[in-house]
Amino acid sequence: MQKFKHIFIMINDFVYNIPVKVYFGKDQMKNLVPELKKYGNRVLMTYGGGSIKKIGLYDKVVKAIKDAGMELFELSGIEPNPRIDSVRKGAQMCKEHNIDVLLAVGGGSTIDATKFMAAGACVDHDPWDFLDLSKRSPIVKALPIVTILTLSATGSEMDQGGVISNPETKDKIGRLSPEMLPKASFLDPTNTFTVSPYQTACGAADMLSHIFEVYFNNNLDLYMLDCFMEGMMKTIIKYAPIAMREPDNYEARANLMWTSSWAINGFIDGGKRQPWSCHPIEHEVSAIYDITHGLGLAIITPRWMEYCLDDTTVDKFVQFGVNVFGIDAKLPKMEIAHKAIDALKDFLFNTLKLKRTFPEVGIDETNFAIMAKKSVNGGTLNGFKPLQQKDVEKIFEMCMK
Amino acid sequence: MQKFKHIFIMINDFVYNIPVKVYFGKDQMKNLVPELKKYGNRVLMTYGGGSIKKIGLYDKVVKAIKDAGMELFELSGIEPNPRIDSVRKGAQMCKEHNIDVLLAVGGGSTIDATKFMAAGACVDHDPWDFLDLSKRSPIVKALPIVTILTLSATGSEMDQGGVISNPETKDKIGRLSPEMLPKASFLDPTNTFTVSPYQTACGAADMLSHIFEVYFNNNLDLYMLDCFMEGMMKTIIKYAPIAMREPDNYEARANLMWTSSWAINGFIDGGKRQPWSCHPIEHEVSAIYDITHGLGLAIITPRWMEYCLDDTTVDKFVQFGVNVFGIDAKLPKMEIAHKAIDALKDFLFNTLKLKRTFPEVGIDETNFAIMAKKSVNGGTLNGFKPLQQKDVEKIFEMCMK
Fold first, then answer.
1. Interface mutation target, options A22, A54, A222, chain B, most CBs of B under 10 Å
2. What is the pTM of this model?
3. Do B227 and A222 touch (CB under 8 A)?
4. Are residues B240 and B200 in contact, defined by beta-carbon separation less than 8 angstroms?
């Protein structure tokens, strides 16, 4: 073989494998029954509150399934920040009724819970054992899942993961498994027309955070993926305010919807291996206070950025500021970095009108120590900037004003 | 249902379905045999000239397959601009030797030809019937295909299509089928270290053209996808010159490799339906003159852009110039557009050092009429700007100097 210098920069190897089929657009319901029928005749439909009934989606889905002569079972009432009890109930129903396929109709909470029902249906033990950090029972099988998305935020419709809360233990824990990847997802932007401005804003903050967790990373990776991430950030910044003002703007809802899936389906990760930061921190907050995940992230993220910013990390903030917010690249680096964080704050708190501090959402210092300790799992969270309990406590203090 | 204004801008519905598994990186060969074994024990390995032997890839692959006790058959000599005779030979071998899985080791030509061998193995008729415009025999089945990519350009490793030449009829025709999608592709950037500066440049021009064909489009679509396309263009413009200067620059080769797949795997298409322009035109040129596809595209594309540029199309050129080449957005629109096309020419002909005109590659006026007529299929090519025979002839004339 010809001799080369072999300049190997540290881009890790990776496997790309996202076989989820996505039906995107406003006239795709005709494909629902054929997709479900691939897996059998007995469907468990899962959903949250009544919103899918208000928008007429419930009636459409039920009619399509019943007209096709399929057997339909229902589990409603899945909570935002879904709870292990709902998962237990769903897994039990799958076993009792010999379910062939689960159909999750809703946002990330419904889809997350449905993933663990599908896995729980295939084992004899309590589904919490999949999540419990002392057990982490293997997920080797799950019933097939099809989703109809009604909220652009978590990306659960195209990824392997889910997060479940356990109010008894005050835990909120996530887990990934390829077995839980939906077989097909239906993304109709019109199904998000009734999402409130507040929930639209929280969804935007959540998506942005998914991208930040990968973008602000010390693993050197493909420039191409950074470009994609910046494109998605610009898409969210452009369209979230439009969707808040004009809830039925198809272009805005469609851009947000497809971005929500790609922000977290694994594509942008490439070969990166570094743990996330703001998500584990926020999960401990919403495990106790039950605030909307996206809102918690919006409050924590800019403070985390300020805490991480130093001479070793400033370059990434410069790239972010110049490429996403169009800040003048000729300014001093540290100035660009601060301007970038300020621009993000302005977007989150002024444009999206999200609450800015912990006190505004009813959080005080009481649980700082325990939340901080849990978020670093009693040790160090080795993300973009390594964080220990005392660091997270300082970030929490920064969220007070 | 709550009443909305229902602003439906015309974003067409689409189905996203790219189940190709990609092993990306320099240490993935260990996964080759397990992937092949999913489909059986009898492998037909296809490749072109001797380049895979020179880089040691041939030996590695053969050893891995033989060590695993699998039966290996070989078909070499697949041409650049692959010919139907190679396809016929491969399909015949599949039938004779009861092949379970095809392993294409090479660039787009080898993979394209292998796709039609895999389909041809499942029918009794001549594989040319799949392509012949008067027949277009259905592709309902194909043997499974695995690829090992050695040239970043056509994207065949992650898409449904292939283009085959028939020297007897002077035809060069493409066809898509989900059946021909590879099951898995191995993308190791080090396998492209020996690609010459010239072939690297041709590959870059080909990738850019794949993106232009979708980007310059009258179908309104997702802004998010435009951002992705601009990111890929910037990636190619940044890294192709580096890969030409430093053939073993892993970062450059890796960025080009992953971009080549995403430029044409269908993701950026979203709901767009408009036919391509430069590819059908170039295919008629290289069907007669057998020049490298990417080189033909490099010569034709900027002239096609100049021919398309007018008051109705200028906005897209402005977006291209500002977002990709950083041209000052405050200049008059038409000036930005011309500057953008000039910047592209500078990149193709000065930076990539590709030949600039038809005469430089031995093409004269002789076949302009016949090539132009074939490229519009005797009527109108309804792309970004509708083109008839006389329009394509004018574009050809612009390629003369």
1. A222
2. 0.95
3. no
4. yes
Determine, for residues B18 and A14 on separate chains, whether the beta-carbon distance falls below 8 Å. Answer: no
Pair (A148, A31) in one structural domain:
yes
Reported as a single tens digit per residue, the pLDDT across A277-324 is 999 999 999 889 979 989 999 999 999 999 999 999 999 999 999 999
Q: What are B151-210's pLDDT values in tens digits?
A: 999 999 999 999 999 999 988 899 999 999 999 999 999 999 999 999 999 999 999 999
Of B5, B220, B223, the CB nearest to A235: B223
Number of domains forming the structure of chain A: 2
Specify the residue for token string 């380049």: B51
Question: For the segment A73-95, what is each residue's pLDDT rounded down to a tens digit?
Answer: 999 999 988 999 999 999 999 99
pLDDT digits (tens, 9 = 90+) for A251-279: 999 999 999 999 999 999 999 989 999 99
Answer yes or no: do B218 and B333 share one domain.
yes
What is the overall mean pLDDT for chain B?
95
Are A166 and A213 members of one domain? no
B187 lies in some domain? yes
Q: Do A88 and A121 share a domain, yes or no? A: yes
Closest chain A residue by Cα to residue B14: A24
**DSSP structural state of residue A269:** G
Cα of A198 to nearest chain B Cα, Å: 17
Which SS3 state, helix, strand or coil, does residue A73 take?
strand
Alpha-carbon distance B322 to nearest alpha carbon in chain A (angstroms): 12
Q: At A172, is the pLDDT very low, low, confident or very high (cuts 50, 70, 90)?
A: confident
Task: Give me the CATH number covering residue A110.
Answer: 3.40.50.1970
A-chain CB neighbours of B258 within 8 Å are: 222, 224-225, 270
Inter-chain touch B28–A13, beta carbons under 8 Å: yes
CATH number for A357: 1.20.1090.10
Q: Do residue B176 and residue B65 come from a single domain?
A: yes
**Considering CB atoms only, which of A4, A11, A193 is closest to B4?**
A193
Domain residues for the domain of B218 are 197-398
Contacts of B234 in chain A (CB under 8 A): 227
A187 touches A24 (CB < 8 A):
yes
Q: Which of A192, A227, A245 is the last residue of a domain?
A: A192
